[in-house]
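call fold target=Ascorbate-specific PTS system EIIA component
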Amino acid sequence: MDETITYLLKNYSDKELSWPEVSTFFEKPMNEVKSHLLPFCSSYDEFHLKLKKIKPVEWVETFLGLSRYEVVYTEKERNELLYLMVYSEKEALSVFHFQEFLKVSKGTVLSDIKKVREALSIEICQLLYSRKEGFALSGSEFYLRREAKNRLASLLQTINGRFGVLLWLTSMDFILVSHVKQVIIEACLEKKIQLAPSRMEELAFFYSLTKKRIGHSILEEQDGFPVIHSNEIASISESILLSITEIPVTESEIQFFSRCLMTFVQGNLHDQSHEFLFSCVAEIIHHMETLVAVRFESFKELFDNLYFHLVPAYYRMIYGFYLPNPMIKQIKRQYGAIYELTTKALQPFEKIIGRKIPEEEIGFFSILFGGEIRKINLLGQQKKIRAIVLCPSGISSSLILKSELRHLFPTLFFTQTDSIDRLHEIDEATYDIIFSTVKINQIPLKKSFYLVKPIMSDLEKNKLLNRVQNEWLIPGFSLPSAKEILDAIKPYIRLREGIEEEKIYHIINRKINKSFERKEDCRPMLSELITPEMIQLAPKQVSWKKAITLAAKPLLDTEKITTSYIEAMIDRVNQYGAFIYIGDRIALSHARPEDGVNELGMSLLKLEGSVNLLDEKHPVQLFICLAAIDNDAHLRALANLTKLLSKKENLQALLHAQSKEEIIKIIKKGDE
């Protein structure tokens, strides 16, 4: 739609058009066309319209819904825009041009130029100036383009940055971006390649900014970078380049833009050039399973999803292309445990690319693994969340209430109805939630209690629904959307003047989301689980089976596990191999919660010397035994452990510790 509007504004301004011919041009219904075009009409009636002449800044203001007078660029945004202005080679630029475009003083521009020059010197590139040519970039064309692409990606994360980029591009050529975007869409459709809308936009902006450099600036061959062998990607790149530049393009240009495209396109399982990543994907998944102490049931599905993410990430990191992650702070704050464990699990990928993975990229992989763990938790909860209903009047009245509650919570499993005075006779292992019409003096440990009325009003039912869902996140239950809520109440309300529906949507969404904000992480830390009572030091050599049995003894003595759990841990090693080996002479032994776990716990056994876990490739000196009650409660402690062991000095200190006190002191470092 936007592409068509820019075309009309450039070619049909001040010309009278009929609504039917415009509708045909858009290939959209008349009402939809009118709603988009009216802001750009100088006059219109029922049958005709006339488009007004519009300046680039007016188009950008309308497109983004932002006035130029509201835009104040930060120093970072100014530096990035200044670089892209020079990079685009639109015209000979002087300090005055920068002042006019960025709306800042000469002193500020000179300071910005200095900072851009300092940043470029790292890549042995320069920002030069001559009176005749103005400002120009000098250095490796590949590095200059990469710098442009990364600065563009950063700018597009802010509304002011988007405003600046769009304003500069439309002032270069009013319909250039729209044309390039349409070319990319058609080329990708032809080859059945899918790009996310945000990635499509970034690519269109980058092609537009680079247009004048293609065929004029020499793009050198990049030794050490993988060649793109995909015929589809190369064909798309060549097609786009020919449509944009209308001049013959070199193989190096096709390769460069193929590389750009590969950073956005998900992996293709049938592309043999990426088969070397298959084993890496499997290794990452198995590594994550070991670190998190869970087994992913949908291995094939997870393998495919991880591979689809890994291929573009591989090209981004190999070429040094930046992908912003606007959620990274939130991910690290709310899901820090999964982030830490994912960082460790991705080490096989780090070996392939030969560098550290940026935190933004780790954040995306954390979401993938977090979703998989969440899926396991929901499946487990669906089977595990059990409720009992108590009533002072006896079983008959309990049954009435149970019927009402079952209607409210169809995915809960109601195991029993009884009178309140018989609560002490009910096995605590058979229920998780208690619904009762009267207060209980002593609520059993780790059980949720909800006081309800025998007959509840709609308001009371809604409050109960929200409270239970907030604490248990019951699968199969969801709150209505903001639109559904507003649509339901609209017939009974009248909006005050100046209040738009969009504002109401925003307020309702904020209220709904507030109730689902993550509470303070109450999951235990490593030092809260591995206490002095849970630590043992064994001076003599033992077999790996004996070591696991000995490591689990404190958990058995405190009834956190049963003997069947120890047997299950040993059986799993015999069945799956040394999967509990997490490297550096450490093993994290565990089995499933249903194999005999009563309570969350961890214990540690340090041997004087190493014992081979099945073979000489897996020597273990430190056995950590985990008894997990689900797939989530232990993640914070495991993240602490991962963080602790990521520093070699901590690992060596643990392996050489001679007392429980020394071990506790080291373990507490992981909590910091």
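return ok
The radius of gyration is 31 Å. The chain has a mean pLDDT of 84.
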